[in-house]
Amino acid sequence: MRERILLVDDEADIVELLEYNLRQSGYTVVTARDGNTALAEIRRQRPDLILLDLNLPDVAGTEVCRRLRRDAGTSSIPIMMITARGEEIDRVVGFELGADDYIVKPFSPRELVLRIGAVLRRAATPTAATPTERILIGLLEIDVPQHRVIVEAEEIPLTALEFKLLYDLASRPGRVQTRDALLERVWGYAPGIETRTVDTHVKRLREKLGAARDYIETVRGVGYRLRAD
Fold this sequence. Notes:
Blueprint: E1 4-8, H1 12-24, E2 28-32, H2 35-44, E3 49-53, H3 61-70, E4 79-83, H4 88-96, E5 101-104, H5 109-124, E6 134-137, E7 140-143, E8 148-151, E9 154-155, H6 160-170, E10 177-178, H7 179-187, H8 196-209, E11 216-219, E12 223-226
Parallel strand pairs: 1-2, 1-3, 3-4, 4-5
Antiparallel strand pairs: 6-7, 7-8, 8-9, 10-12, 11-12
């Protein structure tokens, strides 16, 4: 079955260009020109990935992302933000809201297609776990087959990317993981991509983990590790 992509952008030329390239790459494409239409379309039929422009005429793309991440039924849908804004603060805000990737206009359609492929592969194969695998570290419980994370008997809702990041760290307890290594394994990117992506996702993950937030330790100048006990 062809993967279904919802493209949300109000610029007709951008929509036409991306729709053509995505269809040529084998994807089914549905378009929406504003945030409310996009939210209605997502309720009608859940897409495999959302390409979301930030500058929409009604509901801002950031608000669309926020609503999707707060809803358990849509929280795991991969979201790639596309925007003319290239400032670091805009990328940080996007990642903190739960975006899986962020690409700045103008961009190469070929690059976008490659990055979509990487995000979809992450979502399709979040772990290589065995059917009975469960990780217990202090207050933290990770039920890998069910993709559930529990802290102090409370289930913590994570996106597919956040779950994969936590699992990657938890499967190597006590061992320092560099930002480049995490980018390569979790995001599917070659080393050298901007490492701020990792930092913003770790920050968001810590906030969600609550009482277990300090289990993820920063190793200054290197990366992160999940403590072993």
